[in-house]
Amino acid sequence: MPRLVVITGCTRGLGLAMARAFARRDWTVAGCGTRPEACAKLQAEFGPDHTILPCDVTDPQAVARFASDVLNEHGAPDLLLNNAAIINDNAPLWEVSTEDFGRVVDVNLKGVHAICREFLPAMIARGTGVVVNFSSGWGRSTSPDVAPYCCTKWGIEGLTLALAQDLPPGLAAIPLNPGIIDTDMLRSTFGAGAADFPDPEEWAGKAVPFLEKLSPRDNGRPLTVPGQ
To answer: Angle 13-24/200-212 helices, nearest 10 degrees?
Structure first.
């Protein structure tokens, strides 16, 4: 039976590159994105054995519907990848609006909680599964003009390590630094310098085989994609 991976934010950037790489490696892919048209396009590309649905991870009811559809169709995921994230526009903290700060927190932290809340009970009931919460180099260091993003990624590290202590044997929670990749998010901070780094497809060629090998032995280990 094919293994099941659930990927949030799977219609662009790293999420899209991972979804395609996992599908090529005979995983069943279930994923979500905020743009219905992009989800429909990816569903058509992948075919009926996979499930790609629109879902805003900041909406708990939408997350509950997404999880119910995936669990009813495929069962509990073997690998749950909390990849969806946004970054604030470059600005010193005192110039970031309350609304912009809150949106980064809502997606990057509350969204991870919402997804874990809906999928983990089924994974725990089955007794197996790995949760990977995407952190960042800025979850282990800092930089000017991106304090809200740094705050949430440091939060992902703490949330995930605490979750690892909550989980029963057979499961794992891992905070993962994906490395520096040429994405829209990186371009928003690095500008043209983002082109000096691997693109998502090149990155996924290394990252997906690494993700496939994660196991309960890795529970609570802050990891970084090799070569990044």
So the answer is: 60
